[in-house]
Specification:
Organism (chain B): Falsiruegeria mediterranea M17
Largest sheet of chain B: none
Keywords (chain B): Cell membrane, Membrane, Transmembrane, Transmembrane helix, Transport
Distance between the termini of chain A: 38 Å
Number of helices of chain B: 13
Largest sheet of chain A: 6 strands, mixed
Largest interface: A-B, 35 and 33 residues
Helix content of chain B: over 70%
GO cellular component, one term (chain B): ATP-binding cassette (ABC) transporter complex
Strand content of chain A: 15-25%
Mean pLDDT of chain A: 89
InterPro entries (chain B): ABC_BtuC-like (IPR037294), ABC_TroCD (IPR001626)
Radius of gyration of chain A: 19 Å
Strand order of the largest sheet of chain A: 6-7-8-3-9-10
Number of domains of chain A: 1
Oligomer: heterodimer
Shape of chain A: globular
Protein name (chain B): Manganese transport system membrane protein MntB
CATH superfamily of one domain in chain B: ABC transporter involved in vitamin B12 uptake, BtuC
Order of helices and strands of chain A: HHEEEHEEEHHHHEHEHEEHHH
Low-confidence stretches of chain B: 304-309
Chain lengths: 267, 309
Amino acid sequence: MLELASSNGIANTNEALAESPLAIRGLTVSYGQKPAVFSVDMTVQAGAMTAVIGPNGAGKSTMLKAALGIVKPLSGQVTAFGKPLEDQRARVAYVPQRASVDWDFPTRVIDVVLMGLYRELGLLGRLRGRHKAKAMDCLNRVGMRDFADRQIGQLSGGQQQRVFLARSLAQDADLYLLDEPFAGVDAATEKAIIAVLKSLKDAGKTVVVVHHDLATVTDYFDHVFLINTRKVAEGPVDVAFTAETLQAAYGGRLATAQIDQLSRAAG
Amino acid sequence: MSGEEFVPLSLTPLLIGIFAAVACALPGNFLVLRKQALIGDAISHVVLPGIVVAFLLTGVISAWPMMLGAAGAALLAVVMIEAIRRLGRIEPGAAMGVVFTTMFAGGVLLLEQTDTSSVHLDVEHALYGNLESLIWLDAVGWSSLLDAQALAGLPVELGRIAATLIGVIAFIWLFWRPLKISTFDEGFARTMGIRTNVLGLALVVVAAIAAVAAFDAVGSIIVIAMFICPPAAARMMTNQLERQIAWSIGFATTSAIVGYVFAGYGPLWLGAADAVSAAGMIATVSGVILALTALFGPCRKRAGAPAQA
C-alpha cells in the first residue's frame, strides 16, 4: 500500500510542481486502521481561490494538516513553491479551525495577531511600534480594530474567526490555507472574510479553503478540489464541480435534486 | 525577631521555600494552561522510586546520586506516559495516573523492603521534606551576609534551588514567544516552524528539574501544590498571560512566607505547644489563596469556554 503511494508520487512529478504554491503527492494519513486520506495528489493553481470540499469525515482538514506537517502522514511528499515546505514556512499562512483552540486562554486580541509576526520577531526581537501598527492594520482589514484590547474569550464566534484571519494577514504570506473559516459564523463575518480573501487573490496570492457549504462554492471560488478519502476531482469550478463529481464524492448523501440544482448553478 | 535569631534560623528556610515555590509555579503556568497540570503531581511522585534506587545502588544518602536517580525516574515516567497515551490511545490524565501511582507504590515498597532505618530516608521525609532543618548555623546576624566564612556554611540546598530557579527563569524568558504561541494554538505554532514536540518535552523536563530540586529541599507536598495552586489562582486575577505569571510569582512567594510563619508560630498563637510542618502549611496556604481567588477573583468566569452541548 505504501509502495503504491510513493510510486504514484514519482509518476506525477512534472514541471507544474515547480510553480505550484502547494503540491501534494501520494499523501496517505491514518489515525487508526483505516486511512483518513489515501494516496492523494493535489496541485494548487497559483493565484486561484480553491475550495476543498467533500462530505464530513472525508479527510479535508486532515489532508491540510498533514500537508503542513501538523499531523504526521504515513507517506507522501509536499512542496510549496517548488521547494520542501519546511523551507517555505514564511510564505505559507494557516488559519486553523476556530474550535481547535481554547478561547479562554489569557490573552488579548492584539496579542493573537502579533503571534503572526513571530517569524519576523524571532525569539527575543524587540516588539516595536511598527509591529503593533501592522497588527492594528490587519485587525482593521477584518473590521476588528476596536476590539484590540479585548480578552479573546469575550468575542463571538465570528469575531474570533476574524481575529484568526487577521493573524494570518500579519504573516504577509503568499499562500493562505484556511480550515472551515465559515463554520458557525454570522453573515456579516462571512461577507467580511470573503472580501478579505478576494483582496488577497487580487494581490496575486493563492488561497485554499476547506469549505462545507456547497451552495456558495460557485460564488466564492474559481477552483475546487473534491475529496472523499481519495481524490475525486480537481480543477476549475466549471470543469470539476459537476453533478458527476459531486455524486462521486458524496455518494447517496446528496439528494439527486440537490445535485441537479448545484450543477445548474455551476453552469 | 532580631537579626541574630532570624538570620541563622529562619532566613535560609524562608528563601529555600520561596525559591522552590516560584521554581515550580513558573512552569506550572504553562502546564495548567496546557491541561497538563497533573504532570507536576506525576513527577513529584515518581521521584521517590528514583531516589530509593539511587540509594540502593550507591548505599549513601548524598545529593547528586539522588538528584540523578530522581531525574532519571522523572524522564522514565514522561516517556512511559507518552508511550501509554499513544499506544493505548487514552487521554493524558489517565496515562499519568497509571504511571505515577504505580511508580510511587513501587517506591514505597522498595523503601519498606530496604534497610534504611539507619539513614534519614522515609516516606514522611519524602512528603514533607525538612524545610525547618535547613538552617544556617554559621550566621550570627545580618552582618553574616557579607562574611565569606559564614556564607560558606550556607545549606547546599539553597544554592541548588537558587540555580534551578535561575535556570527555569532563563528557559521561560528565552522561549517565551514559542511557549505562548504553542500553548495557545499548537497547530498554528507548527506552521510557524516552532518544533512544538521538542518544546513541549523541554517544558516537562524543566518542570521535572524544578520538581526534583524542590523535592530535595522541601518534599513533594510543596511541589504538587505549587505546580497548580499559584498559577490557577493567578489565572483568576487577570486575562493576560504576562500578568498571570507575575501574579503566580506573588502568590507562590506569599504562600511560602505566610505558610512558614504560620507553621512556626500559628500553633503557639492558638495555644498549642509545637510547631507544625512548614511544607504542609505552605501548601495549605496556597490552597486557601486558590479558594479565595476562585470565590472573589475578577476573572474567574471561563468566558471563552466552549459551549456545553
